[in-house]
Amino acid sequence: MIKQEYLDKAAVLIEALPYIQRFNRKIMVVKYGGSAMIDEKLKKNVIADVVLLKLVGFKPIIVHGGGKEISRWVGMVGMEPHFVNGLRVTDEDTMEVAEMVLNKVNKELVSMVQALGVKAVGISGKDGCLLGCRKKTSGGQDIGYVGDVTHVDPKILYDLLEKDFLPVVCPIGMDDHFHSYNINADDAASAIAESMQAEKLAFLSDIEGVLRDKDDPSSLISELTVSEAEELIREGVVGGGMIPKLQNCIDAINRGISRVHILDGRIPHCLLLEFFTNEGIGTAIMKDESQKFNREFQK
Ligand SMILES: Nc1ncnc2c1ncn2[C@@H]1O[C@H](COP(=O)(O)OP(=O)(O)O)[C@@H](O)[C@H]1O
Ligand SMILES: CC(=O)N[C@@H](CCC(=O)OP(=O)(O)O)C(=O)O
């Protein structure tokens, strides 16, 4: 007997067939945040969705975080994690731990993809000079080896896609002097999506999407134009990590990505439901002139 979960997936995909054909071979960047990697089953669900996207003809690229795991290891080696405006203060020791942990998470995700029969290659932003950066400061404050992406060289990603590999990228970059920097994974994902003019950019987090009241999941805003998103930031409706995330979405749209999505990576089949159903499950952000309330499979 066929398992119900496969039948559900098949139903979503059958409904989405015209869309799948229209966007065949288009690049999708999926930012998979550490807060949505809470257990093995959920991780497997997300990876299964990404693999399915690849099998039906898209070209997905995973850019992952691992903030929670880095903090756990920083604690294990007897240091205290510190953040300024959501960015990890990264001294030399922290940089070493962050790079080790992100590489570990990277290879775990690669294994999970490969366990489903699709070949993946895990790289950091240092490989092939993918992510060039310079030292970032936060409000004039020195926060150590935190990088601002200044340049993306996507050649390595095009080469991997061309050879049919699924790229898995961790957010470590290099400056002009080949020093390693810790880059916020949202920044890395949007920089990559912009440089490749991806069809889609999706941020998987541990919240339903953008909420009018952050403690009330039923206040989910399903669709937002850039102006509305800017207003939510100005009015203080969004706070914490959602401010830079939404700003990244706005910037990505202003730089040519047509739709960007913020969704809950803890929901089974979140990517399929967001991309391939008219209602979606998260928040879709789009240009001001886009047609709202008619996702038409997120045109
Ligand atoms: N209006 C809002 N809607 C949704 N999330 C919000 C809002 N305001 C603040 N947040 C916070 O932003 C967080 C998401 O950002 P962040 O923790 O940086 O995500 P991630 O670690 O997955 O990249 C949510 O968990 C929530 O606590
Ligand atoms: C500079 C900075 O803060 N870098 C992040 C990189 C990982 C990340 O962004 O992970 P999530 O997506 O899981 O938050 C960090 O060290 O936590």
Automatic annotation (TrEMBL):
GO biological process, alphabetically ordered: L-arginine biosynthetic process via ornithine
Superkingdom, natural source: Bacteria
InterPro entries from the UniProt entry: AceGlu_kinase-like_sf (IPR036393), AcgluKinase_fam (IPR004662), ArgB (IPR037528), Asp/Glu/Uridylate_kinase (IPR001048), NAGK-C (IPR041727)
EC class (word): transferase
Subcellular location, record wording: Cytoplasm
Ligand binding (substrate): G66, G67, R88, N182
Gene3D superfamilies: Acetylglutamate kinase-like (3.40.1160.10)
EC number assigned by the record: 2.7.2.8
Keywords noted in UniProt: Amino-acid biosynthesis, Arginine biosynthesis, ATP-binding, Cytoplasm, Kinase, Nucleotide-binding, Transferase
Pathway entry: Amino-acid biosynthesis; L-arginine biosynthesis; N(2)-acetyl-L-ornithine from L-glutamate: step 2/4
Sequence ranges assigned to domain Aspartate/glutamate/uridylate kinase in this UniProt record: 26-264
Recorded catalytic activity of this chain's protein: N-acetyl-L-glutamate + ATP = N-acetyl-L-glutamyl 5-phosphate + ADP
Residue ranges of the TM segments: none
Family according to the record: Belongs to the acetylglutamate kinase family. ArgB subfamily.
Protein task: Catalyzes the ATP-dependent phosphorylation of N-acetyl-L-glutamate.
Matching NCBIfam families: argB (TIGR00761)
Protein name from the UniProt record: Acetylglutamate kinase
Organism the protein comes from: Bilifractor porci
